[in-house]
Amino acid sequence: MKMDHILEKIKEYNRIIIHKHIRPDGDCYGAAFGLKEIIKETFPKKEVYVVGEIAEYVKFIGDVDDIPDDYFKGALSICVDTASGDRVADQRFKLADYVIKIDHHIPVSDYGDFQYVDTTRAAAAQIILEFYLRYKDELKINMTAAKALYTGILTDTGRFKYRSVTADTFRAVAFLIDYGLDFTEIIGKLDIKSENLMKLQGYVLQNFKKTPNGVAYIKMKPEILEKFDISLEEGTSLVNELSTLDDCPVWMLFAEYENNIVRGRLRSRAPSIDKLANKYNGGGHRLACGANLGDWETVEKLLVDADELVKEYKKSKN
Ligand SMILES: [Mn+2]
């Protein structure tokens, strides 16, 4: 059983460093801090750190550590929720003695000494929760971990709405509810938004475009974010504002990241879009992907391909 190996390695190392992915989301936060708290609660003498960038909207889950290079020497690095090595936040995992990848994305380019990948899991946080449940007799949990794991599962499933949710997701989450988790408190934290973000939401709903066959999209250019005074992270989180348009089974949001590099968030209700994302230097899940477009001209090419994909999909349904 592959999970046994993860537990063995955690037992073996005294210093464990947990890595999220770049541009962190609720799931990598939840999985990382959930795992950290489970290890700390079970083995209080072990040193456990979570490294990488901060995400404002989920930073209530836990504080990221700033550690020197020499901490990696002789340490175990565990990378969660990250399909390819280049997306691991804090590349110093390469300095660690042993590297474990725990993920639920379709593998792109593998890395590390040991991979635990289960694409049937709705969230990396679900894998961590199931890891705990499997070794419940040996491991301990606490409320901080429960909150982190619930937040990870909640955000990666669009609040239990996506196709990725299975009965196992609910079975795992049921434990957290039995444990006494105040889930309404977490919903409350995630729901509250600034006036600026609410106005930008209105902008997205008023200004999105559609391709002839039904791909809804919004170009969130830097000047828009500036006008509404919204961070890139918060702005791009609005992709799912376009998820409920009746004749558009695919929707996308495009924005400029560091060094003016254009990336897209691609979403679908039904037709698979991961191959499309692969073509544009991206990937992820069957119905939710990221793509690295580079410039705005490439966005137009992607939209042509996406439009064709939706056309074929609609034809196949008739
Ligand atoms: Mn995830």
Describe the SSE topology.
Layout: H1 2-12, E1 15-19, H2 26-42, E2 47-51, E3 76-80, E4 98-103, E5 114-117, H3 124-134, H4 143-156, H5 167-179, H6 183-191, H7 195-207, E6 209-210, E7 215-220, H8 222-228, H9 232-236, E8 250-256, E9 262-268, H10 274-279, E10 283-284, E11 288-294, H11 296-317
Parallel strand pairs: 1-2, 1-3, 3-4, 4-5, 7-8
Antiparallel strand pairs: 6-7, 8-9, 9-11, 10-11
Bound molecules: manganese (II) ion (MN).
Descriptive report:
Helices cover 40% and strands 18% of the residues. Helix 3 crosses helix 4 (143-156) and helix 4 runs antiparallel to helix 5. The chain has two domains: 2-190, inorganic pyrophosphatase (n-terminal core) (Alpha-Beta Complex), CATH 3.90.1640.10; 195-317, Diaminopimelate Epimerase, Chain A, domain 1. The protein has helices at 2-12, 26-42, 124-134, 143-156, 167-179, 183-191, 195-207, 222-228, 232-236, 274-279, 296-317, and strands spanning 15-19, 47-51, 76-80, 98-103, 114-117, 209-210, 215-220, 250-256, 262-268, 283-284, 288-294. The model has no long low-confidence stretch (mean pLDDT 96). With 318 residues, the protein is an alpha/beta fold. A hairpin with a 3-residue loop joins strand 10 (283-284) and strand 11 (288-294). The longest helix is centred in the last third of the chain and has 22 residues, at 296-317. Residues 27, 81, 104, 123-124, 156 line the site of manganese (II) ion.
